[in-house]
Amino acid sequence: MKTAIVWFKTDLRLEDNETLVKAIAQSDQIIPLYCFDDSQFTTTSYGFKKTGSFRAQFLLESSQDLDNNLRQLGSGLIIVKGKPEVEIAKIAQQYKAFKVFAKREVAYEEKNTERLVQNELFKMRCELETFSTSTLYHAEDLPFSIKDIPDVFTNFRKKIEKESSIRTIFDKPLLINSPQIPEAAFPKLNDLDLKFQAIDSRAAMHFKGGETEASKRLNYYFFQTKKISTYKETRNGLVGADYSSKFSAWLALGCISPRFIYHELKKYESNFGANESTYWLIFELLWRDFFRFMFKKHQSKMFQASGINSEKEIPKAVSEKLLKNWVSGNTNVDFIDANMIELKLTGFMSNRGRQNVASYLCNDLKLDWRYGASYFEQQLIDYDECSNWGNWAYIAGVGNDPRANRYFDIQKQAVVYDKDKSYRNLWLNS
Ligand SMILES: Cc1cc2nc3c(=O)[nH]c(=O)nc-3n(C[C@H](O)[C@H](O)[C@H](O)COP(=O)(O)OP(=O)(O)OC[C@H]3O[C@@H](n4cnc5c(N)ncnc54)[C@H](O)[C@@H]3O)c2cc1C
């Protein structure tokens, strides 16, 4: 009897999950496993938690949904908590697994954890096999080697659009053969050193974790409301659920794959027509891919003050007072404060808001950008290491922005994007 473990991480889904499909194909029975990694719930050297309560809640919901969906197919999810290299090795030994199947990582810390797990498994002659499952374009289909990936997005996009294609999806398995999986023991927020925080009722959206909810949102945004057909015109909005797709949180935990979104979009386009808006969602998903591949190329540099641009002088000091005022929405710049309050009370902020508050921290307050990135890491429901640190480095001028010294004039931005002040009134007048 060949038993394999499927180690779920930020791929909490059954649809289009190559790791799961390959594990099923190569073994007689599988053990689905999720490890709440203690290191993800510590406080960083910047003074912020790695995971705040909004995202932890979303993660709990997502893993519970995965457990439910697995049980419907005859399996279930084993939940462990601790160091992955210890906990996964224990389960591998208990079930005499011949292999652990998992998603392949690109970012520095995640890659390190992957290596530690592999070393422990190696000691018991158990293999770790990984699969690239989080991007729209498969890593092996890129028209350049990793070291030659262009550092400028437009060059990356043009070549990839011309020379690569997007693979088809892996169908969700219909049945899974597993031994009796004991009822999953999910941690409570307290066990993760966190307290429940209710999302403010003014939130753009009340995100609920899991593949089931991700698929509902996609159906809503595409087929029920056809909002996708006006996405390009609305995407710079600030108020409400539908100015943008809001797919990010589900994408970050892998409750939905970008490739699945792409193929659903193609169905939508063949029924209701393609236009600039339908294309633009793919364009944005390409940004997501771009940052992932940049992390593969530049590795830990994206977490360093000078990023991939060692020439640029950047402030390394931080004024605690200025940082505190920025975090709590007390800068006296109303557009910045409204955005920071939204983030604090809901775990979400629009893309337009993120660009402005990040630029303000770097260019106006002149603080070390990594404090801002670290606060976002704690606070965002949709936190994703590559998209977050990549975008922050970009705005700080140490990443992939070909334009030196990009500056957001906050007052001007507020006038253009919040002309009638409805956004600022929503968050500042309470
Ligand atoms: C400073 C800063 C930090 C950010 N941190 C994160 C983060 O931690 N996680 C995250 O998912 N996005 C991050 N973004 C990108 C972007 O702001 C969010 O993806 C977007 O606001 C999420 O809302 P949406 O799903 O409705 O986006 P939509 O506009 O509907 O876009 C569709 C999808 O495209 C991708 N996308 C869109 N814009 C970007 C972008 N600039 N970079 C990478 N991917 C993009 C996302 O996966 C998004 O879900 C950050 C942007 C900035 C400027």
What does this structure look like?
- This protein is an alpha/beta fold and 430 residues long.
- It has helices spanning 18-26, 53-72, 84-94, 108-123, 153-163, 211-224, 231-234, 248-252, 258-272, 276-298, 320-328, 334-346, 351-364, 369-379, 385-396, 410-417, 422-428; strands at residues 3-8, 29-37, 78-82, 99-103, 127-131.
- The protein has a five-stranded parallel sheet, with helices on both faces.
- The longest helix is centred in the last third of the chain and has 23 residues, at 276-298.
- The chain is globular and about 65 Å long.
- The termini are far apart.
- The mean pLDDT is 96.
What share of the residues lie within helices?
40-55%
What small ligands are held by the chains?
flavin-adenine dinucleotide
Strand percent estimate: 5-15%
Biggest beta-sheet profile: 5 strands, parallel
Order of neighbouring strands in the sheet with most strands? 3-2-1-4-5
Mean pLDDT: 96
Give the assembly state of these chains.
Answer: single chain
Shape: globular
Count of runs of 4 or more consecutive helical residues: 17
* Global Rg: 22 Å
Distance between the termini: 62 Å
Low-confidence stretches: none
Going by helix content, strand content and strand pairing, the class is: alpha/beta
* Count of DSSP strands: 5
* H/E element order: EHEHEHEHEHHHHHHHHHHHHH
